Structure formats: C-alpha cells, structure tokens
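Quick question, first post here. What does this chain look like in 3D?
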Amino acid sequence: MNKLTHLFERNIQWADEIKEKNPGFFTELSKQQAPEYLWIGCSDSRVPANQIVALPPGEVFVHRNIANVVVHTDLNCLSVIQFAVDYLKVKHIVVCGHYGCGGVKASMEEEDHGLIDNWLRHIKDVGRFHAAELEQLDEHARLDRLCELNVLEQAANVCNSSVVQNAWNSGADLSVHAWIYSIDNGLLKDLNLSVSSIKQMEQLNN
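> Answer (accepted):
Ran it through. Tokens below.
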C-alpha cells in the first residue's frame, strides 16, 4: 500500500525550516485565525493563493473551485463567504481567476465533459452575455478575455450575495476585488473592479 511517505517527509522538512526561522511560529498560529483576506480562486494546482501574494499561513482564508465560480445556490461557497465576513471579519474578498483556465476553456467547447458541464454552464452564460465582444477575437484572445469576464461576473455575484449586502448595510469595512493571474509570468493583474458599498455596486450595475 502506497502511504505517500515522501509527502510526510517533505512536511517534516517544511515545518523544520519554518521553526528554524521563527521558533514560535506554529505556537502563535495555533492560537487564532485572523486573516484580512478571503481568496476565491480556481482549484488549478498552479494557482496557490498564499504563495502568489507571498503571505504566510494564517493570512489568507481560501475557497477554491473549478474556474472560481460564485453561484447564489452554492451553499459551500456562500458558507465560506459568511464565515469569512461575519466571524473572521475579513476586510477584502478577492476573486482571482487565471489566464488559460481549463474550466473556462472547456466551457467554450462543444464536446461532452460529463458532470462538470452542469458547473460550466455558469461560464457559458458569461460567454453568452458578452458574445458580441468575444466573437471579434481570435481563439487565444477569446479565451483570455472570457477568463477576465468570468472573474468580473463572479466578483459581481459576491457583491450581490446576501452576506455581503448585509455586511455593507451594517457598515462593515469590506471590499470586493477582481484579479487575474498569469501562469506564464507569475504576475497578478487588477481588473479594475473594487467595490466597497451597495452604492458603488448599484453604480456598477448601471
């Protein structure tokens, strides 16, 4: 039976290296969780939230799924948002996609992908909303642009969620951001959506 012993060995090495640099790190980490950021990202193994922004464990609360989708019927995602906003009191929610996203690419294809096609339907809808713009682009540019549009749509869904709306109505210091990551160069791009109130959200919707 394969028990993945090499991963346990790597874990020991990682923990030892951190303790060597900061002997009290894990003791302090175990006492509380107080991140300022909720990261909603893609499950892609090449897009690790903490490493991208160079923050240590404990600084980023993370939810990931295929193509960083936020759906109003997804109780998993909504529960993460509620816990982050109501209990952890995060100040920023970052929806971060990435260029070349396999989920977004699959949503553009006609073939059957199985169960995941039901999930990708949400991205197909984004493509339909912006069909006139996307049809003007070549295949590569169309994929990149749909990745961006998907992030913007999902960030808007976060803003329109009851959890975030209630937080803003209560005067919470909370902002929602839309970012995208390039696996090719390791850099983040701000998609120029940053919303901190219902009034800003209404202006965006108009």
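The two ends are 59 Å apart (CA to CA).
The mean pLDDT is 94.
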